[in-house]
Amino acid sequence: MSDKAIQDSYPENLAHCYGCGRLNAQGHHVRTFWDGDETVSRFTPQPWHIAVPGFVYGGLIASLVDCHSTGSAAMAAYRAAGRAPGSEPPLRFVTGSLHVDYLKPTPLGGELTLRGRIKEIKGRKIVIESTVYADGVATARGEVVALQMPDNFGQS
Amino acid sequence: MSDKAIQDSYPENLAHCYGCGRLNAQGHHVRTFWDGDETVSRFTPQPWHIAVPGFVYGGLIASLVDCHSTGSAAMAAYRAAGRAPGSEPPLRFVTGSLHVDYLKPTPLGGELTLRGRIKEIKGRKIVIESTVYADGVATARGEVVALQMPDNFGQS
């Protein structure tokens, strides 16, 4: 696996995301890599990221699925275009829709692994399936419809 | 509207949720009330809860939809049973699945309002539709399938 995550290549003005932006000091800093044809992120929840004591908060899981999946979409778009990640113009994706099925409670206390599969690439839309594993057991499965960011997104 | 939120009535061992637990010092403290037949929560994101500068992080929106909806499910269950919120035995719900459609970017800088509608009550399953409004404009719409918590949930 490369030691450079897709999020390391986001341009500075798009690197402030609370979930995955390297420039957000308070954020989660999700980092996503290729592993063959799958994408992988790893994340260790904090002790306060709980639903009930001992189990990870579902909203955090949704956040991880979100950023892992939009990162995976960017990776898939660069690969499909035969371009190096981060090359200009940037290919950056936002979330059109997010779906998470909670398969079982996710135990707190160790590193979680997210593995993504590129389900569909169609124009500016990419569909990613992302599964969350705790100690090798799948505890949640998500699907994100990621949309290539409009050029004027974030110009408030 | 009552000045007591459903989360104020959760038993102590179920009041640690990062999204809505009153006993989680680091959490978001989502609080949910009846407004007629709809449920309402209000939340002001922090400056670091951004996707790109000026706009709210989608993972936070998913978290708000999650806790607003499971709280709404508990409220609906108590109302359907003709019981006062918080009366024993507790009716507390976990998220079976979460879906969010992001309708447009959610501007950062003010209070968000979530409004919930009880779509279906069937046995231990309650379906809630929750819409997120920023300054009166709907920016995201979510659907949560909430499941009544098993009696042994969280006994790790």
Q: End-to-end distance of chain A, in Å?
A: 37 Å
**CATH homology-level superfamily of chain A:** Hotdog Thioesterase
Approximate strand percentage of chain A: 25-35%
What spatial form of chain A do the alpha-carbon principal axes imply? Answer: globular
Taken in chain order, the helices and strands of chain A follow as: EEHEEEE
The greatest interface here is:
A-B, 42 and 42 residues
User: C-alpha Rg of chain A, in Å?
Assistant: 15 Å
Oligomer: homodimer
Which runs of chain A of at least 5 residues are low in confidence (pLDDT < 50)? Answer: none
- Major sheet details of chain A: 6 strands, antiparallel
Number of domains of chain A: 1
CATH architecture of chain A: Roll
Number of helices of chain A: 1
Mean pLDDT of chain A: 95
